[in-house]
Design brief:
The complex is a heterodimer.
Chain A: H1 12-20, H2 23-40, E1 44-45, E2 54-55, E3 59-66, H3 68-92, H4 97-100, H5 106-110, E4 132-141, E5 144-151, H6 158-171, H7 173-178, H8 187-197, E6 209-212, H9 221-231, E7 234-236, E8 241-244, E9 247-252, E10 255-258, E11 261-264, H10 268-271, H11 287-292, E12 297-299, H12 310-313, H13 316-324, E13 331-332, E14 336-337, H14 341-349, E15 354-358, E16 367-369, H15 375-387, E17 392-396, E18 402-407, E19 410-419, E20 421-424, E21 429-431, E22 436-439, E23 455-461
Parallel strand pairs in A: 3-23, 5-13, 6-7, 6-11, 11-12
Antiparallel strand pairs in A: 1-2, 4-5, 4-20, 8-9, 9-10, 14-17, 15-16, 15-17, 18-19, 19-22, 20-21, 22-23
Chain B: H1 3-35, H2 42-51, H3 55-61, H4 67-75, H5 84-97, H6 104-121, H7 127-151, H8 156-184, H9 197-206, H10 210-217, H11 223-231, H12 240-253, H13 259-277, H14 281-287, H15 289-310
Helix pairs in contact in B: 1-2, 1-4, 1-5, 1-7, 1-8, 1-9, 2-4, 5-6, 6-7, 8-12, 8-15, 12-13, 13-15
Chain lengths: 464, 313
Amino acid sequence: MGWPDDVRTPYALIDAWLRDTPPDQLALKRREAEVLFRRIGITFAVYTEGGDAERLIPFDLIPRVLAQAEWRNLRRGLEQRARALNAFMHDVYHDREIIRAGRVPERLVLHNSQFRPEMCGLDLPGQMYAHICGIDMVRTGPNDYYVLEDNCRTPSGVSYMLENREVMLRLFPDLFRRNTVAPVAHYPDELLATLRSLAPPNCPGEPTIVLLTPGIHNSAYYEHAFLADEMGIDLVEGADLVVSKDVCYQRTTKGLERVDVIYRRVDDDYLDPLVFRPDSMLGVPGLHFANRAGNLTITNAVGTGIADDKAVYIHVPEMVRFYLGEEPLLKNVPTHDCSKPDELAYVLDRLDELVVKAVHGSGGYGMLVGPHASRDELAAFRQQLVQRPHDYIAQPTLSLSTVPTFVDDGIAPRHVDLRPFVLCGADQVRVVPGGLTRVALKEGSLVVNSSQGGGTKDTWILED
Amino acid sequence: MLARTAESLFWLARYMERADYVARLLQVAGHMSAVRVDSDRRSEWESAIIASGGSLPYFAKHATVDEATVIDFLAFDRDNPSSIANCIDTARRNARTVRTALTTSMWDAVQGAWQELPRFRDAPKNADLLNDFLEWVRVRVDLFHGVCSNSMLRRDSFYFLRTGQFLERADNVARLLDVKYHVRLPQVSDVGGVIDYYQWLAILRVVGARRAYRVLYKGRVEPAQVAELLITRSVFPRSLAFCYQQITHHLDAIEDQDPVRVAEAKRCAHSLYADLRYASVDRIIDTGLHEFLTDVIERTEALGTQIAVGHLF
């Protein structure tokens, strides 16, 4: 029930497993999974509900499966894309050749709220900016993947990739014996190796690395604690750090200890009150100057937001050609730039067929799904588009692939996306085989965001 | 280690220990008011409030003392920072901020307690539920301290945790002894004279020392011997002497400190430990048990401050 008879090859084993397993046993496992997640405390905070309400992200038992060949292509595409994005950021904060060559409009970069003039002329280790990228993709057909978004700032979700696997291994050890699933558990080692490779020029020896969190009220706090724990590094808050004479230190019970690399999960705006928002209590005064002085590496670098803007997204394939001299392996969703009058006219004409997104929006907010929108919503969006066309882009609704998903009345197809994590060190680019699969639990829904009621699945890359 | 981590571990252990103590107080108050048909039952509940250190918030909110109000105040009231529910909440908040410093089983112990709490807090209240709850708290806290022993590396994080636990316990025991003295024996000369057997028995019950008392002293419960057991007998794990033995031991074990900065904390701890260990109970009673306990409470508080100063909390 629920999916076509011609099961895709990678799913053959899952199919057999589901047919062999009595439904009540699956229901039992589903409850067990929930208990596990609650006990581990993998929650995200829901800001809208007041206080620090903690909610579980629904977990689906049925893994999402990719064949090795499929993954190999994806992986090459991801590495290529991450290199191009980093080259773009280096260029934007240095010579701006891509602008001078007329390939990316100047206005898009220099008038972008995510552009940080403070970063101009600063040389970063390995010329890397977005050290951890979460690139969101959807599949629309055999070997047809489209990139939806390049998350270059502080992408989250990797703890779900790891915990989902842990829970699956505990619940269904047999399933793993019957399949050769590529492991993901070494992600924290790869992340640590990446961070280590990014030691700043003036680092006196083996770099001291810390993870900077906004604190327990942040929605991704669990992930921050988890990653720090897995890497064996300190999880610090702004108040634990101090900058003196352009060197960053952490306050320990023994006094001040030098810090060389910060994996920060605090947004640019809040990172350094001397440079960005002066009212920020989350950041550390002087952090930016320690960075500029070559005494500290901040990952991801300040100003990476310039590359994951939805209007800049349009130009990523061009970046691949410009910087790498290669043809892009991953496709962009055809995107209309509403700031161009002819494209705006086209979009307004077909509003009920398109997905319109705010350029700076995230988390599924500020978007319009044309085919699902009411007449009033369409009218309201039309008005906003006319008033502030620069703030929007529009894309066709893709015919996304679905995967079997365990829902209340059995197993049914649901839309998914995939966020693999690409690690860009000064030495090499690393990609762990897998990623976070988010699933839209509502029937027919295309929105997979956890803040919009989406769930997650374990993601399997089968080895040959 | 990060100073903030040390501070959170210290308070995590203090709040777990405090939850256990308040549960013990409530258990004994309930027990005493049930067995003593002849007594003024109110005083059992009133002394529970005083012994918990919650007089101020309690009387700010309630004019009278009665069983149901006191139970709710000490067990669940969100306005009472030392209610058991708030202790568990606060302990869990501290645990979350230092999750990376905890072992998995420590996290499980705290998170498990916090998750089960609503089962009691939100259920209709009755005597059976209360008994289940208090028993549950004690088992949960024992579990927590047990997994700390069995899973943590013997490094600074462990020493800070234990220092917090025993500092809290010392404070609780001193207050417990003092409040009974204060409530029941307003004059020094009353000690050994008109004493209330049940009151001293109740103290033993709160700290789980009835059997220990019998083993060490054999006979009938005498106040001077109860005081001796709880002040100087370092073989008993809830005596002040034992607490301070642990505090000095764990404080000294904290690695490689600036000797000048931590000197004051160590001086506070060791001098009080010496005073407790070599104390003569007869002399304490002659010069004033209340005065002695007040001194212990004040010095314990000062020690807490000095630990924070010395380790840069």
